Amino acid sequence: MMKVGFIGLGVMGKPMAGHLVDAGHELIVYNRTSAKAQELIAKGATGAASTGEVGQVSDVVITMLPDSPDVEAVLFEDGGLISTLKPGSLLIDCSTISPEAAAAIGGQLAATGIQFVDAPVSGGEIGAVSGKLAIMMGGEVEAVTRAEEVLNAFAGAMAHVGPVGSGQLVKAANQMLVAGNIAIVGEALSLLQRTEVDIDSALGVLNGGLAASRVLEVKAPKMLERDFAPGFRLDLHYKDLRIALAAAEHAKIAVPLTGIITQLVQALRSAGDGGEDHSALIKAIERLSGAATPVKEGAL
Amino acid sequence: MMKVGFIGLGVMGKPMAGHLVDAGHELIVYNRTSAKAQELIAKGATGAASTGEVGQVSDVVITMLPDSPDVEAVLFEDGGLISTLKPGSLLIDCSTISPEAAAAIGGQLAATGIQFVDAPVSGGEIGAVSGKLAIMMGGEVEAVTRAEEVLNAFAGAMAHVGPVGSGQLVKAANQMLVAGNIAIVGEALSLLQRTEVDIDSALGVLNGGLAASRVLEVKAPKMLERDFAPGFRLDLHYKDLRIALAAAEHAKIAVPLTGIITQLVQALRSAGDGGEDHSALIKAIERLSGAATPVKEGAL
Amino acid sequence: MMKVGFIGLGVMGKPMAGHLVDAGHELIVYNRTSAKAQELIAKGATGAASTGEVGQVSDVVITMLPDSPDVEAVLFEDGGLISTLKPGSLLIDCSTISPEAAAAIGGQLAATGIQFVDAPVSGGEIGAVSGKLAIMMGGEVEAVTRAEEVLNAFAGAMAHVGPVGSGQLVKAANQMLVAGNIAIVGEALSLLQRTEVDIDSALGVLNGGLAASRVLEVKAPKMLERDFAPGFRLDLHYKDLRIALAAAEHAKIAVPLTGIITQLVQALRSAGDGGEDHSALIKAIERLSGAATPVKEGAL
Amino acid sequence: MMKVGFIGLGVMGKPMAGHLVDAGHELIVYNRTSAKAQELIAKGATGAASTGEVGQVSDVVITMLPDSPDVEAVLFEDGGLISTLKPGSLLIDCSTISPEAAAAIGGQLAATGIQFVDAPVSGGEIGAVSGKLAIMMGGEVEAVTRAEEVLNAFAGAMAHVGPVGSGQLVKAANQMLVAGNIAIVGEALSLLQRTEVDIDSALGVLNGGLAASRVLEVKAPKMLERDFAPGFRLDLHYKDLRIALAAAEHAKIAVPLTGIITQLVQALRSAGDGGEDHSALIKAIERLSGAATPVKEGAL
């Protein structure tokens, strides 16, 4: 068992940290809003007064923060992690940030003898609570092997996908795929809902062939019930799509569908729906045609 | 067992008809190119000299033809099926045609006392040969129940999805979903291939989460190997997307992604690749950026 | 002066025919709804009882009809034009139809010794009334020269743009350009209207540079005043964009922007706005973001 | 006449500054690469050793820099303009930066009693050399009136379009319109070039109607001659489109066409063509269809 520091106890971070205690690790936690740490302290974790203090006493530190600037602040601000982490220690960043930012962080840490793994997760709050997240890891083999021992506490699946930054690239691809699948399911359902088709029967047979997807299986029923409680908020998906667009620019490939899907997500945010689940994307398709509510129009 | 007529012995139709013989039905077959019937006749089927003759001797007739005009010709030309089919007989059209055409055919047949079921299939040549097609049926309950007894010979999954024309609507939705999923997988892979990511590991973890789809599972490996042997040809998928666009127009809903994806498919056809598998759509993304061959550019 | 037949006295055709009388031509008119011919007969034209009769007595016949099937019916139905037009006579089709249909008609007429020019017009009802239409002519030099003598009566500009069908191809390009310019003006205005920018001042300076266009000059003010009285109806523009998409397919070039703009036009039609002027396209952009009415949001 | 400082003597800035000398202003210039100042000093301008020095001796300072960070550095770095500009002086920023950045700068300057006008220009190097730029000004009336006296030296057209930041918003709209018009001209020409249409005749008639635009007039001939020497580089247009996308996000309106056009520009940059004129956008359309060179395919 290891001394593990954890910084960022949000909706995802708190249950992830909880699994580390359950797995028997000696846990040191820090959160800007210290109240969020109480539950974990009650479970046996130690609270730290600053991010620097977390670095001082940990062998491995996990960060789970909203965006690149947050991770950079925790690391590089006065008295931040980089000034207290010991050479030979390991930083695992589970945040979703840009691949370029991850690569830059990895480079700066390497210069001071600190190992770095970017390890963004997929699976949402449900996956964090159940300890079944999919984790995409980028880094040196030795560092990734070490990271796996810790991340194992809340992983459903883990893969070492390449050098530092690769985890973020695969996460970016993941978010493109999910948004694309949601958008096209939105178009297909918008069509079927305006016909006399029995949609439940249709979904059954669609999921039996090449059109099958986890999105069609999990999200289509919620779209039909107009249940858009998150899940995963459109505001966050928008952030992730911007990361994907920047990664594509960097890799020198244009992604026209991702470009337009990002605008569909932006349309929902413009309409004040950024806090809804990403499956609410179907509303952009409907609104475009001036049809807020699906109405059976009898297309036959 | 029934007297079943079968018209249209192409790549799909021939194995479908074969399963009917295997299932013990008395089969009468007709194909414009009569040579294609020989194999089935050798298996025990009877050859007919005209479509009219098929109608005369069958209780149930199945058509499996390229497009609406072909189905209409077989039915309504001089001496066509409609002039010989007996009241009370059943026509099952397994072709992929427009929902409007299917509804019109159903209406005309009903006026002469002939039952009609539109029953387009999904699963391609592999599904036809293995007898595991997914079949989407539109029609009256009684007619659909009767159709199931016959279609059962080559069905992996069957669903009654609504009144006449509904089978075609669900098939249109199916083709939108498949094209959309292929297109976004094309963008995601084009990105990852231009980075240092280990793509096999990446596909593993992507297929473990919300990004999972049958397309990602089945088509992504072929895209990576540049194996674009059909499978399902882009020329046919283009035809189906035009049916979907027309169906959306009819149902009064705009489908912007389907509009642009149809142009991507059209780009492949323009480049002379219409005979390749629809997974070749990834080439449109690559060509747009002037990158015919994926090259590792080291995005990190 | 010539004996000129005119078939199709709609919103465009009636004023066009009127200019021919004014120019001194001996005019024979036919319209399915014969009442529409009365005004022209009062002006000195002769009414014909059938399209065949028009062909019998004319040297030159002009058709101005809604779509390809209408032109084909007038020509090829029992007793239609092709059975009465004399060898050496000239048919000028001013309708907007597909280039392929125009080429096919030209071929059939050539086989019977009749000259053909496709001569679609641009400029709308205003241009027809003022006799200042832009006319794009496809055909043999001799036929086009002859056509110019007649069309001169209502032309602001004329150009011989290539062989038969070329007029329709240029008209298709014209409709792509107009729709594209309207759509991007719709996006730019939607943005500016949600800021503190003084839009009248902005339009002045935008029209002074590379962003200048006839659409920005003529249509932007109407968009701002929400004056969507046609002008040119979205339903007709949709028809023309479908012709353009088919022409691009035939010429083996994909047109992704036209593909998506066609869906934006379709969205307006779906919402019941197909009878409004094409400048109403701005409403699709606004509706997508859930913003039916532009509201100053103070973007600064 | 006034004491005018000028910072940023690039391709645009140098000729703009030259016009100020010609107009009789007392000019103080600064450029990071001081060699660029020599020509102006030879013309009678005074060279400054730092941006701070420019602020110290000027009543009005003009900045003409590549992007927001450059403007912010010149203003806010140690010893930057803000520390030396006197209360009551005026800063005019002619750079194209984000409206939000402009508004933030305006706010900070106002707090120290310095007037600010954002005044991005349109017209490119040609307009700068000829002194005929279109200038979009945002700011308080008094400041804008004062700015006009100076900018008059190189303005073809000037407009006060709203409060601080409005100039940048109108410039963003300008760049959306130009890119949109270029993109749709690219599609229309790509189509016509693959037919037997005589394109010169076609351009004549297209420019005579509602399809007319400055882009069609000025850029289409260059596209046909494959003359893509800038003019205005795609790399810069990409930067400006990203500003426009961010402005639209801020104003709460989705802009789907701008989203996809930005990806087309990105495709050119990915292919290594970012240094070409923005009219090279036509190459993205051609490449998508696998057609690097336009070939007459005889579409009729």
Which properties best describe this structure?
homotetramer; Rossmann fold; N-(1-d-carboxylethyl)-l-norvaline Dehydrogenase, domain 2; six-stranded parallel β-sheet; three-stranded mixed β-sheet; 9 strands; elongated
Task: Give an overview in words.
The structure is a homotetramer of 300-residue chains. By secondary structure, chain A is α/β, with parallel strands linked by helices. Chain A folds into two domains: 3-163, NAD(P)-binding Rossmann-like Domain (Rossmann fold), CATH 3.40.50.720; 169-288, N-(1-d-carboxylethyl)-l-norvaline Dehydrogenase, domain 2. Chain A is 50% helix and 13% strand. Chain A has 15 helices and nine strands. Chain A has helices at residues 13-22, 38-42, 51-57, 68-76, 81-84, 99-110, 124-130, 141-151, 166-193, 199-206, 214-218, 220-224, 234-251, 256-270, 282-288; strands spanning 3-7, 26-30, 46-47, 60-63, 90-93, 115-118, 121-122, 133-138, 155-162. In chain A, helix 9 (166-193) crosses helix 14, helix 9 (166-193) packs across helix 15 and helix 13 (234-251) runs antiparallel to helix 14 (256-270). At the B-C interface, helix 13 of B face helix 13 of C.
